[in-house]
Design goal:
The chain has helices spanning 15-19, 42-51, 107-117, 160-172, 185-197, 215-224, 226-246, 248-251, 259-264, 268-279, 285-292, 323-327, 357-385; strands at residues 63-68, 74-80, 93-97, 120-121, 128-129, 134-139, 178-183, 205-209, 305-310, 332-337, 346-347, 353-354. The chain is an alpha/beta fold. It comes from Syncephalis pseudoplumigaleata.
Length: 387
């Protein structure tokens, strides 16, 4: 089976043959990542990603829209450069799903959106890249300075919020082509959604960055390592506890939650045992981890999907990556680097910038170009038949 990405143009191109000349950062002699010398392993890359924020370098401005969900909850959609209007509703839309407790303010979101939604000078100095789409960030419930309106948060297995957001955007902009990217937890939610939707998926393409893929394997790997046990897992737990405390007035309404146990949790696994698995009705934390793992859904993905992971990611272990499943699915490509950390991939000596933005923006532009060609052919064909 081949992935027909250009059927409307009358040619049956495989995904790889189409992308190879259009994505030099993924294929060919320029397809390599050289890390910043003083960020030469996954721990340093991850630390810089967390504490070396360079938001001021990315001139992204958002327009916020609060979207009510069917269960009474609410998510914040941050549009850039602005929300669609009737005159601009057909412009392609790029949906971003963020990490565990992140949001639209994260520099990894802003840097990619800068490349796709704003005109900028290309890194190779071969000219200016024009914007190709409108961006919208889906912030999880209670994240990015929003409040929750029901005693429910979010988790890696919960795809209904994303599904509702996508259906809402399609209703508002029925002629807009849709692409998507997910980071960390958001990439797992996105890939699980892609697999659940299968042939009915409305996206033209998607990108998964630093995906944990297998929550159980990742949890075991995190607890196995010294830094995982003593630094990463406790910090992730503290981040989630802060979200819990911020929205305690709502969450205390769920009698199943034991606030004392939640606040005494020392690792992310303990938080998931006492909070996440309880909120979402799982029997055990491992039951939640098995159900949440997007690796189970890779074989059912039916849109072009690029997965980007670093082999030295100390947060989401690469050992859970579904290589065999990806090999038998022509719609999915996985690109790995030996170094890069968790949503890191910083290069350059004095002013580190994310190398990952290059292959991601190349892939997105190539995929949106296919959609634009289809649209033009549809218009041309319609014009011929209407004469």
């Amino acid at each position: 089976m081949t992935a027909d990405i250009d059927g409307a143009a009358g040619t049956a191109s495989t995904l790889l043959s189409y992308l190879t000349p259009r994505c030099p950062s993924l294929f060919g002699p320029k397809a390599h990542f050289r890390s910043t010398p003083w960020l030469a392993n996954g721990h340093f890359q991850t630390a810089w990603a967390a504490y070396g924020s360079i938001n001021d370098a990315y001139p992204i401005v958002y327009e916020r829209e609060l979207l009510d969900l069917p269960d009474g909850g609410q998510v914040a959609l941050d549009w850039t450069p602005s929300r669609p209007t009737p005159d601009t509703a057909a412009m392609p839309i790029f949906i971003v799903v963020t990490g565990l407790t992140g949001g639209s303010q994260e520099d990894y979101v802003r840097s990619l959106l800068t490349r796709l939604t704003l005109a900028h000078v290309a890194d190779d100095e071969h000219g200016t890249h024009a914007p190709v789409c409108r961006g919208v960030v889906m912030n999880f419930r209670g994240c990015a300075n929003t409040r929750i309106t029901t005693p429910r948060l979010y988790c890696g297995a919960w795809t209904d919020d994303l599904r509702y957001v996508v259906s809402y955007i399609r209703e508002q902009c029925p002629d807009a082509e849709l692409g998507a990217a997910g980071f960390s937890l958001g990439s797992n939610v996105l890939v699980k959604y892609l697999g659940e939707e299968g042939e009915a998926c409305p996206f033209k393409f998607a990108m998964s960055i630093s995906n944990p893929f297998d929550f159980l394997a990742g949890s075991l790997a995190l607890e196995r390592g010294l830094l995982g046990r003593t630094i990463y897992s406790p910090q992730l737990c503290k981040n989630l506890q802060q979200v819990y405390l911020t929205h305690y007035d709502q969450l205390k309404l769920d009698p199943r939650l034991d606030a004392e146990k939640i606040m005494k949790a020392k690792t992310i696994r303990e938080f998931d045992r006492y909070a996440t698995s309880v909120l979402f009705g799982y029997d055990t934390v491992d039951d939640y981890y098995r159900d949440a793992s997007s690796s189970r859904w890779i074989t059912r993905v039916r849109v072009p999907l690029l997965c980007l992971n670093a082999c030295d990611d100390p947060v989401t272990s690469i050992e859970g990556a579904p290589y065999d499943e990806i090999r038998i699915n022509p719609f999915v490509i996985i690109a790995t680097t030996s170094c890069g950390g968790h949503i890191g991939w910083f290069e350059n000596m004095l002013r580190p910038r994310r190398w990952s933005d290059k292959p991601l923006s190349e892939f997105a532009r190539a995929m949106f170009a296919v959609s634009e060609r289809r649209r033009r052919m549809h218009i041309a064909t319609h014009g011929l038949t209407s004469r």
